[in-house]
Amino acid sequence: MRVILAEDSTLLREGLVRLLAEEGHEVLAAVGDADALLREVEAHAPDVVVTDIRMPPDHTDEGLRAAVRIRELRPEIGVVVLSQYVERNYAAQLLTSSAERVGYLLKDRVAQVEEFLDALERVHAGGAAIDPEVVRQLLIRTTHVDPLTRLTPRERTVLEALAEGHTNAAIGEKLHISLSAVEKNLNAIFDKLGLHRTTGYSRRVLAVLRYLES
Amino acid sequence: MREPVAAPLLMRVAGVLVGCLTALLGLLYFVVAGAALGAFLLWPRTRARAHALLAAGARRLTALERGRRSLFFHDVFPEHRADDRQILRYLAARTYSGLLCAVVVGLVDFGAVLAGIFAVGLTRSSMTWVDVLSQVVLGGTLLFLAVQGLRALTEQDARLARECFGPSERELLQRRIDELATSRAAVVHAVDAERRRVERDLHDGVQQRLVALAMLLGRARRGRTPERADALLEQAHKEAREVLTELREVAWRVYPTALDSLGLREALGGVSERCAVPVRMEYDVPVPLPSAVETAAYFVVSEAVNNAAKHAAADEISVRVRQRGATLSVLVRDTGVGGADPAGSGLTGLGSRVAALDGTLHVDSPLGGPTTITAELPCA
């Protein structure tokens, strides 16, 4: 795939460029701030953009704002943001704009090379990739009464895998259950969350969002 | 807070004598004006008007007193107007104490004349030693009493003026409380700024390096050939050593442990060793310092030296840490380009740290340099 990177730490940027090149991806540009990122995206039309959230000048959420903007202007480009900490509100901002071709990963996830590359592939294929840690923390936080508490433990693990952006087949593999069991669980989840019969993918996304907003 | 500089003794003596004269004026005023206005003051329909007249005159005399305090005693009064009641009360009390003072001064003069006569008598040696002794004891005792009385009365004069013109004890206390509240808030602010900086150091330095290191290892594991994997492992090993160095530096910036174990002098030596620009260090502190003062002094030097090396393009930095009496003075001067901003976050933080110890921080950094940063820290 053709990738553009935005990361202000030179060391990490170089590492990512090398890693992606070794994997046979094409890195069109690697930049250190959000403005340059937007310029490069305009110039090159990549398949996927990977950007750090905290970048110069203020080291707050420049990368996230750029990512949201790219999603508005060029929805066909996949966007993966790397976050310093689990920020529920950042994740929600990014996913409400649309939850296709989008990833929200903790920065440390890059260290687990396989998982990172896998997440990139998923986003490139049109799916979503949400960091397992984000999902885990969100699950811990959802203790107050909301539809999620009505889910069985099995349904919760399925939703968790769904939120990470896996396909039904991948969820089945991950949890060692059959595809039909996955589908049954998903239907139960959609019912409990009050999601009507919308098209398959956006329903999945809505479930994830419900999950992030809870 | 700076105390005003005390006036020279001769001026103060003159002030006391002038005070005796103005007290006579006050007495005269009260007698004359009291006699003229007395009847009107008693009659309800004219009371207010008479009172206002009396106060207006008193206000003039009070202004004279105020001028006398400023001129002879270097008192500094804030701009505020006392009301009529305060003015009259002040003038009455001040006149009374001034007259008493005049009496005591008269007694001292009288005693001086007596002492002169006594001295003349001594030279003619027409006295027994019992007479001499009794005269000396009596004279000495009276002199002591007179001096005590004068001291008490001059104190009283100063206190009365402060109560009427300000700043009164209460205002001084209030001012001190305001100062403390401000410095306390500034300290909290400075601590937060420090924490933000530490977080940034950890995130931008250590964490990025660790992620990069893990990535190198991940790539090594996926390496297509053993040679490639070896090369990546080699890099990862080097990276790991650099992470350690970085971590040590961050921890040191958070708090230099050498301060506790080796003291200020050694910790400052560390600052100059780590600085790329040559640092000339003068250290003259004969007695041990309180640890809060040591820490503040350390951070003043370390911040100033780092700024000079980083932003001022200085080619020499001189540091002087000196203790004189109950004050530790820290001076850092560099030959750089100047233009340091005292309102910048680093210097503001230092200022707060120093102010919290009742010290002062002064930054002098004209464009084109040199930059001088001085801190005075009380270490009592």
From TrEMBL, chain A:
The keyword Lipid metabolism does not apply. The modification 4-aspartylphosphate is found at residue 52. GO terms for molecular function: DNA binding. Residues 2-122 form the Response regulatory domain. PROSITE patterns: HTH_LUXR_2 (PS50043), RESPONSE_REGULATORY (PS50110). GO terms for biological process: phosphorelay signal transduction system; regulation of DNA-templated transcription. Keywords: DNA-binding, Phosphoprotein, Transcription, Transcription regulation. Gene3D superfamilies: 3.40.50.2300. It comes from the Bacteria. Residues 144-209 form the HTH luxR-type domain. PANTHER family: TRANSCRIPTIONAL REGULATORY PROTEIN NARL-RELATED, TWO-COMPONENT RESPONSE REGULATOR. This is DNA-binding response regulator. It comes from Streptomyces kanamyceticus.
